[in-house]
Amino acid sequence: MHTVQKKVCLLGDFAVGKTSLIRRFVEGRFDDRYLSTIGVKISRKTVTRADHLLNLLIWDLAGGDDFSKASASYLRGAAGALLVCDLTRAATLDTLVDYAQQLKALDATAVLVLVGNKADLLDERQISDEALAATAEMFAAPYLLTSALTGQHVEAAFHHLAEAIERPL
User: What's the pLDDT at 69?
Assistant: First the structure.
């Protein structure tokens, strides 16, 4: 069985849960200690496909102001990205447009999947399904509600991204 390797990024503001989503997907665990990512951290996960192995190189990029400093060099070569917002902080949805535009400016064929993270915090939720759907529609992207804490739809988000980057144009 042959192996295909693809670079994917997680994009979103600081503290939306990008690192936690990666840890849940790659290591199957959650750690509630918050350490802000500085620069980039690269993880790897191999996903079994029908006729090959897909080796995902998952780039965890610092969010917020840190991101704009080196964004082009970090994004170059990415086949796609999970755009991550924090469902308890409405402003984190608005900034996803900027992240998506930066990636699309480098590669118009890069695929996107929008993720509303922290779905387990129902009482604190500030972003509606309608707002998520409207933002996802701007990029012809699917959206999912995830929780790195419980694991809800984390695998599904990465698998949607994997399927989309391998779909013929």
Answer: 47
Torsional sign, CA 68, 69, 73, 74? negative
Residues in the chain: 169
In Å, what is the CA distance from 31 to each residue of 17, 23, 131, 160? 11, 8, 29, 24
- Beta-carbon contacts of 16 under 8 Å, excluding residues fewer than 6 positions away, are 63, 84, 85, 86, 89, 92, 117, 118
- Determine the pLDDT at residue 67: 57
2-166: CATH topology is: Rossmann fold (3.40.50)
Domain assignments of the chain as residue spans, ordered by start: 2-166
* Bridge partners of residue 42, in order along the sequence: 59
| pLDDT < 70 regions, the chain | 34-39, 65-70, 168-169
Q: Is 140 exposed, middle or buried (0-12, 13-18, 19+ CB in 10 A)?
A: exposed
User: Taking a C-beta distance cutoff of 8 angstroms, is the pair 153, 84 a contact?
Assistant: no
